[in-house]
Amino acid sequence: MTLPWTEWLPTQRWYAGRNRTVVSADTADVVPLRPHLDLMLVDVTYTSGAAERYQVVVQWDSTPPSKEGAIITDGAFDGLHDPSSAQFLLSLMDSGTTIGNVTFTKEPGVSLPLDVTPRVSTAEQSNTSVVFADQAIFKLFRRLAAGINPDIELNRVLGRAENRHVARLLGSFDTTMDGQPCPLGMVTAFAANSTEGWDMATASTRALTADGAGDGFSGEAYELGRAVASVHATLAAELGTSTDVLPVDVMRERLAAAASAVPELAEYRAAIEERYAKVAEEPVVVQRVHGDLHLGQVLRTADGWLLIDFEGEPGQPVEERRRPDSAMRDVAGMLRSFEYAAYQQLVDRTPDPELAARVKDWVDRNCASFCDGYAAEAGTDPRDHAAVLAAYELDKAVYEAGYEARFRPNWLNIPMRSIARLVG
Ligand code: ATP
Ligand code: MG
């Protein structure tokens, strides 16, 4: 039976083709998992641009779940919404089953919560997660891409090395596509009762607007610095380091693109180029890194900080995202995030010099605590790599300026203030 993909896909949060015109949406492959349950790969082509392949686990049944959006057509629905089907997928990982060209694997020495009744997460995300109580979170990848998935790859390395600052990888499953591996999903330990770093940091900076000092966060910033350094150390020990020149060409391209769209950047352009030139020649130590680190990618649990989502820089091809880079790239990402968490409190507010001073003080204090914590764990202080760190911070701020000018002009001040400081 052909399924009405063209009608159903646009109703799904994870579908990325909404702004394009579909030419065709066809089932490209069917892997029967058990009676009434098929893993389906759906190819979508558009009038322009690249085709996409999506994954849907289809359950053929007469009693669909009441969940809105789960029903594909009469008698067929998204199987993740049936707890017993989600449990079944987990059991395939537990037994290390291969069905057709789909292979399910479990990490050595872990146990999966096979008896828990799962529920589909309501988080707004580009994949679909199923939560098994407070024990495991199963992420089914929706838009498929051939190649090694850095999130699975790095979580596997970090988990097997028993690094305490990641959600332990428990299992994964994949297939092949065009002769390459193609990841389909992963299961990690669920961080119960966790708070996202961004929520914690902005709760602290909100206190600044109510005349508070908002210092509650600097102990956290310190521990976060230690956690990031610990993850870097494990990645370096397990996957090695080498020396390379920094990707200054990419930084220059990004600067050129942003400068042509943001007139405010013009007066800083030469100074930024100068900063890039300073670090262009000198080889630096590179290693595998997180690649997209910010306060939204860290969870605070009762036992400490966890880094999640090792996918690397969004929108880049997978080989770019897996390229060894300076650990300072991650440090810079986190420092930028501290500035955002604080300076966003000034957006759309009448100028208030006292508040601005408190905000600046919060940023200085927490960036310093983060670097102190990083240095305590790593034995080397990020501030000793000032030129490299500044280049990465500038690169990030330049990108942000392009983004804000386009989508949130009221926020443009945040990256512009940082750029002025960094070249000042
Ligand atoms: P996005 O498209 O937003 O990047 P995604 O599909 O890549 O989403 P994740 O970023 O991995 O999914 O996770 C989405 C959310 O699920 C996270 O912001 C976090 O709140 C929660 N989450 C992820 N992993 C865990 C975990 N191990 N324990 C608890 N919560 C988690
Ligand atoms: Mg994510």
Structure write-up:
The chain is an alpha+beta fold. The chain folds into two domains: about 5-190, no CATH class; about 195-424, Aminoglycoside phosphotransferase (APH), C-terminal lobe (Aminoglycoside 3'-phosphotransferase, Chain: A, domain 2, Alpha-Beta Complex), CATH 3.90.1200. About 40% of the residues lie in helices and about 20% in strands. The strands form four sheets. The chain has a seven-stranded antiparallel beta sheet. A five-stranded antiparallel beta sheet has the order 1-2-3-5-4. It has a three-stranded antiparallel beta sheet with strand order 13-16-17. A hairpin with a 3-residue loop joins strand 9 (about 130) and strand 10. The longest helix has 26 residues, at about 355-380. The protein is globular and about 65 Å long. The termini are far apart. It binds adenosine-5'-triphosphate and magnesium ion. Adenosine-5'-triphosphate binds near residues 123, 188 and 191.
